[in-house]
Protein 1
Amino acid sequence: MIFVVALVSVLGFILIELPPGSALDTKIAQMRQSGGEISQEQIKALEDLYGLRDPIHVKYTKWITRAVTGDFGQSFTMDMPVGALIWSRLAFSIGLAVFSLLISWGISIPLGVYSATHRHTIPDYVIQVLQFLGVAIPQFLFALVLLVFSASVLNQEVGTLFSREFQNAPWSAAKLLDFLSHVWIPVVVLIAGGTASLTRIMRANLLDVLGQQYVQTARSKGLHETRVIWRHAVRNALHPLVMALGTTLPTLISGEVVISIVLNLPTTGPLYIRALIQKDMYLGVTFLLMLSLLLIIGNLFADLLLAWVDPRVRLDES
Amino acid sequence: MSTASAALDARESELEQQRSAEISQWGLIWRRFARNRLSVWAAWVLVAMYVVAALAPFLAPYNADRIDTNHSFAPPSTVRVIGGRLAVCALEQDLDPFLLKWRYSDNCSQARPIEFFVRGDPYGVLGITTFNVHLFGVTAGLPMKGAPAPQVRATPTPTSSSTATSDPLAAFRIQQSAAVAPIDKVTNAPRIFLAGADQQGRDVFSRILEGSRVSLTVGLVGVLLSLTIGSIMGATSGYVGGTWDDVIQRLIEVIRSVPTLPLWAAIAAALPRTTTIVQRYFLITLVLSLVGWTSLARELRGKVMAYRALDYIAAARLAGSSHLRIILSHMLPNAASHIIVVATLAVPYSILGETTLSFLGLGMLPPAVSWGVLLKDAQQLDSILIHPWMLLPALPVIVTVAAYFLLGDGLRDAVDPYSS
């Protein structure tokens, strides 16, 4: 796992380093535009100071040796340490992703079970159509539509997480309510995407399991149908859902990045894309690394969870 | 007698068996697929969309990039039936004194019929020749007979002659009453905007059609590319095994442990921004496939590893087949149905990827036209509230992606011999 993280950091570093030019060029261009004259020698001195002309492996070694101690370098465009910039945003992103994931699970399991046990009925078709729409509608679009809805129908102030009067206020019940009235859009969009794919998986799995003989055995023993489904069938249909965590998590993270750009949320998304466009490399690469780390930990968690629900995948204890 | 009929029966059932035995694996797959009505419909929808994309310049009434500042943010035209013919009313514009924006209204005394096969903007065909015939359009000519009387336009505040003199907005009122009817400089006719116009007065409908060419193919080409990479990587890593397998598996692991969209964005940001549209197009397909090949390679590796242990491969090996021949003509055809399903289900993700990247300003860049590029114009909330038609390019995205999912689902069920 550490090996993978290290490789991701190398890969990310190369990627972000690849485009020509640097954030320094942008700054110099800005200074020139505002009338300052910078000589070629000064530029050279600055480049030497920031080590911009070092070969890439030297740059990487410099960055990674300090990164492992928690110092991810300085953001060129924001004039702040990268570490200080990303933690609060990352925490919000993680919170949003995990919360949406839990809700998605909570909705999609009963929905998938219902859909599978009531096959070819109208509610089943409705669920299937909705789930197709949930996967087919680009998330940024859904966010945009909800934004329009909340601005024009609900007359909410959009594009922030707090109304103006609560922006700098200390946390209180009123502020929490205000926060909830703003945060519902990204949450709904994320849940919609997650629920759609998870319901699909749940339905397909349960249909597979319901066709197996042990389910028939359970029925012929005279067990109540609810018990057959929830105790016997659903328990065995859950494993692929846990395994799907590995594919759901990156979708949630990607979705979160896009949605927060559309909604201008103070999470990783807008800052990350801006860092990429402005070649703010330490900021960009740290975000990429952190998002990957999130994914890797998530997958590890999924594996552990799977071992917990399914004794068959546990390694021999002997 | 009875023996003869029994012999006949036997003969018949034998024939029957032969007939049913003649159905190939692909024939069986096709039969199962055709039973799934929804997927067949989805397939037809997709075929129609690709035909539309191929004929886009002909089907579109205007060129996608024709700027017409006289029609900035013109609303969608209402197609009316006047005198038994489809017609559009002429558009008139006047200045909103408060928002300082153009306001549009229909003037149906100047209605023009919608005509078919009209001459308009020239467009190239396969780079060989140029045509200027469009499927439909509005031509200059006399206003239609039997057109209704001019509609009375509602003015925001009723003006009476007594207050008009002291009214600071009087100048605008005069402007309003003298609303100008901008006309198309090329065809000298009123314009038809089925989906409204954008800020620069470009026809959104024409742009959606034009954008379909990039958006519908970028996913397909991207998946073809990932299919090629994925097949080579997956088949060789499963077949050769050992260190090569280890290296490829770790590589896949690393790529897959970076969330897709941030990775796409990072690669796309690393691309040079001063390229031609065609170069950019292929770079974007490359970006999409650099991430996309991993899932296919994994699936194929599993398949190839399973086949490797089977007798028929050992037989082929003993018969003197080369490794390349075994992979190409014994293993890949066996996995073909599986590959097709995985590829079909990967296309919509590719299309969504391009749309999202372009929306973020990292994918296709203007002047290229794709659905994502069009939706980028709808990023500003104020803009959508006033010009909701700017969101229309989203519709074909949703239809395409849903159709591909349905098609992929149908194919998956069809290739699975155990599906009910």
Protein 2
Amino acid sequence: MTVTGPSNADRFLALLKPIERDLETYCRRLIWEPQQAADALQNAVMRGFAAFDRYHADASFRAWMFKILTHEAFALNRKYARIARHEFQLDPEELAGLALAGEPGQGGNPNLSSAELDAVLEPVLATGLKTLTDTERSVLLLRAIGDLRYREISEALGIPMGSVMGNLSRARYKMRSLLAHSARRTKLLNEN
Amino acid sequence: MKCDEVQPLRDACLDSELDARTALEIEQHLKSCPNCARHFAEADKLDTRIKAGLKQGRRTAALWEQIEHSVIASAPSTAGSAGWQAILATVGEQLRAGWSRAPRIWAGLAAVWMMIFALHFSGRETDAPLVAKQQMPSASEMRVALKQKQSWMAELAVTSETGSTDKAKAAPPRPRSEQRTETVKT
């Protein structure tokens, strides 16, 4: 008698299991409305499973699922129109001031220890992500959490490689500036 | 490589996204330029912190359990197909066993079956042209035939009309007494 192989669902879940934590972390960072994170994950996984027949085994399942989740999160962000209410942009002058204060090698003296950086890290990340545009945020998160290559990010977001590099560079610049600035301010406050 | 050429490539270099040649050129520049090397080191340090911070998250067990249940529930049932596969496998095994026991008989049966099949289709081929000949005439052919028929009808009507007028003009039969006198005169 022939032995039947694992079903589609079994194969899908076996590939999904190792990336569940990263998918959830990515989703919670990307989506504006925290209550919508579970829905976004559920929808993305179900969409992925429905399209699993079209998934090629030689492609990266991780990149494929992050792409689906990104589109789902963007759709929910648009649907609930939270972006305008939550997102705030820093003025160019304000950003330049932060950069001069904290960006390494551009003024200031950021000789900050790891402990000093870690002390302000989480609030800076939460605030910093809100200063980014949708594309900057997703590029940064796909690189940091998804560990995707530039080419995979380009395919996931449907933007050219040059745009990926540009968005990533801007996102990192803003985040580094905020982190260094906050850490320096906290250090000064503690010294006083 | 100069400083202003190296700085824009900093992120791509730290992400190991550059080709080997460019990466080597940057590495050589950093060895000779402490300022750029310091920028790279600071950026790397901050990026590492940011990445570690962004990656901090948890897996909500209850949520994933629910999602996995949904996936399994939405999967099409494979019980039916497994049953058919088992039946087909059994039939296949029996056929293979029969073939190995009496291959000549099976070959003969197959040849007879092929002959029946060939005869059946060759018989059908002879019918095909007959069927093809019995096709409906085209519209133009039907119009021509109709016109011809109409002309025949017209001719028939004319001939019948002329026949009737001749009959009308013919002299009525004379009485026998007159006929008898004529014969006497002659």
